[in-house]
Amino acid sequence: MVQEVLLNLSIIIIVSAALAVIARIIKQPPIIAYLIAGVVVGPLLFNIVGPSSSEFIQVFARIGVAFLLFIVGLSLDLRVLKEIGVVSTFAGIAEIIVVGGIGFLISAGLGMGSTTALYIGAALAFSSTVVVVKILSDKKEIDTLHGRIALGILIIQDFAAAIALMAIPLLNSKASQLSILISFSEVIGIIAVIFLFSVFALNKFLNYLARSQESLFLFGIAWALALAVLFDRLGFSLEIGALIAGMSLASSKYTLELGSKIKPLRDFFVVLFFVFFGTQLAGQIGWNLVKISLLFSAFIIIVKPVIVMIILRIFGYKKKTNFLAGSSLAQISEFSLILVLLGYTLGHLSQDIMSLAVLIAIFTIGASSYGIYYSHALFNKLSKILGVFEGRKYLKKEAFKESYDVILFGYHRIGYKLLNALKETKLSFAVVDHNPKVILALGKEGINCIYGDASDKVFLSELELGNAKLAISTVPDENTNLSIRERLNETCSKAIFIATAEQPRRAFDLYEKGVDYVIVPHHLGGEYASDMIKSFCLNAAKYREAGKRHLKELLNARKSSSFDLV
After folding, report:
1. CATH code for 2-385?
2. In CATH, which superfamily holds the domain spanning 397-565?
3. DSSP letter assigned to residue 211
4. What b-and-e string marks burial along 310-334, b requiring 16 or more CB atoms within 10 Å of the CB?
5. Which regions of 311-405 does DSSP assign to beta strands (E)?
6. The pTM is what?
7. What crossing angle do the helices spanning 334-345 and 145-167 adopt, rounded to 10°?
């Protein structure tokens, strides 16, 4: 039996690794590879995983869920809610309510019971933090406006998923409303005790453990599994116990260290979690089930982004920002699979619903991955029909008719530093940005600002670029910078043009197109640090003094009304 389990486990890892390589080549996230690996080794195809091995894999899968949720919990510091802003909070809550509600109605319309429809609605509402963060990070867009909005919405979804995981075990039809209320009060009380213990005792204990990385690593595993087992024994879910374990440590200064140490272990078990889900495509997968999965997938891929775009339009964002943020969320989440698994374990859902969730995950994660990778190209093709999602155009519209010596495109990233330098000159200047919060904040400070998207050629044609003496773009997108360069050429402008690029090869392209100077941030940072080393050498006092000046500058920036925008 042991040999059979080890053999099957080896086959699963080999198949998963091979498919993960293929997934990387075709620009798909590893989750897809693991789900398909489960289908390959499962009863639907080669039926490699026998009954005895299946039980072990299910155990490993649940351990993987525990570690996954523990690390998610580590990132869910309650203080984060203050930082993600009103837009992400409102958009996240509204998206969950609207998408979940429509998903529930569609499920009920297909003849599913109310409990099943509730599970499906919840599963459809959540988007994958793992997939979105991974792809946006690869594209260097995690710190862009649409990336930050999408990440904020995902954080709100993760908080909502945490509440759902806590509430679902109480949805037992055999229990009375009074017993459910008592159980809910009990779990709230236990969570409160855990958080108080963490604040007043555990954080101090971590200071001692942190002297040894091995001790810290083992404690993290022990804490996650201990609370997972505790909640499981108390009749709640193992998943919520692991999540609470992570959240109880989220405010600790050792959060990043714990997460980085446990992440490799989590990755191994999470592979088995998704493989296990893939094996749930068992028996005959009828055409009816496929049709339903395609219906729900179409809803997620097409309607869900539209809902997000409508919500963001209310806040005045440009159609490009709305499209890029909305298209990033066009998939279901790993939380969706965990919720379905929990419902199946509790007897609320059937095997067919498990299979349905797997199919939706494969379809939506696969399609949305390409959608995120090629989002800018898709926007360029669909731009003409997306006018209905264009945000408010009245913000500082009168500034279009004025001429300025300097036009600064983009306040985020390094733009706010350049703005401070421009204030010290006698030149007239204006800031162009597509974030309405930036425009409103700068407007309150009496700074000339224009609301618009620099990548929009129609918008650029309305600007008085021909009279500008200097144009500065802090936007690292090459196409945007080329559009500005093209517009300057069209107006026969003699303005100096300074652009920004994240990578040297992009800088080469911009120089070839006639850009006068290209800012490559990490190169400038290295150059500044090199000059500092040459000047200070081994004089510790000078480094500390420079550090104090830098800290003072950061503190002053934090006090400004627009600090959260940069």
Report:
1. 1.20.1530.20
2. NAD(P)-binding Rossmann-like Domain (3.40.50.720)
3. T
4. bbbbebbbbbbbbbbbbbbbbbbbb
5. none
6. 0.76
7. 10
